[in-house]
Amino acid sequence: MQHNIMLLFLSDVKVTKDGKKLSEPADYPGLGFTMTTNESAVRYLVQKNAKNNDVIKLDKIFAFATNKIRNMYVGQKFSGDETRAAGAVDEQGNPLTHLDYFKYRLQSENILEDIESSMTEDDAEKGINGTVCPFNEDSTDVKKTMMTIVWMANRIQAYIQSLPQKEQSEVFLHADLTGGFRHASMMMLAVMRLMQYQGVKIGHVL
Prior knowledge:
The chain has helices at about 40-45, 65-70, 100-110, 115-120, 140-160, 185-195; strands at about 5-10, 25-30, 30-35, 60-65, 130-135, 170-175, 200-205. Helix 5 (about 140-160) packs across helix 6 (about 185-195). The longest helix is centred in the C-terminal third of the chain and has 20 residues, at about 140-160. The protein has 6 helices and 7 strands. The strands form 2 sheets. Strands 5-4-1-6-7 form a 5-stranded parallel beta sheet. Strands 2-3 form a two-stranded antiparallel ribbon. A hairpin with a 3-residue loop joins strand 2 (about 25-30) and strand 3. It has about 210 residues and is an alpha/beta fold.
C-alpha cells in the first residue's frame, strides 16, 4: 500500500499593508483560487488538472513553521498588536494564526478531508511529536538550524516506523520548495536526502 507524505516550509499569509485585509487570491488555471503560498502546491498534488493526471491522497504534511507562523494571528505585525486581518477567521469568527489559517483553507475548501490528522502539532503532555516542526527564525546559530533538519527527519522516520513493516518501503515523499526563507530549500533538500538514505522514494518536487 502506497503512502504519500509532503514536506514544506510554511510561508506567512499575505495581507494588505495595514494588516486589516487579506491579499487578493491567486487564480491558477485548473487549481482554483489560492490564499496562501503553499496551498497551490497541495492543490496541485491532490487535484486532477492539465499537468497532473494522478490524484494523490496525502497521508501526512510535514511542515517547518516559524514562531510567527505558529503563534501570531494573521495581520499582526508584532506580539501584542491587536490588528487582525478580516477573513482570517474560523466559522465562529475566532482569529487564526498563519498555521491555523493554512489548515483551515485545506479543510474548508475540501482540499484535504481531515487536516487535523494529516497535519499535527506536538503534544508535550503525551510526549508526542507532530508533523509541524518549530523553527526559530530569530536564531543565528547554524548548529540549531542543522538540528532542526535532523528533528524533521526524525519526525518523518517516526511516522514511517508507525506503519506496518511491509508498507514502510512504499512511502513517497513529495516536496513544495516555494515557501519560507531563501535558505529553506536547502534545509528541505537535506531532509529529502536523509530520507532517501532511509529508503523513502521521492515523488513530486514542486
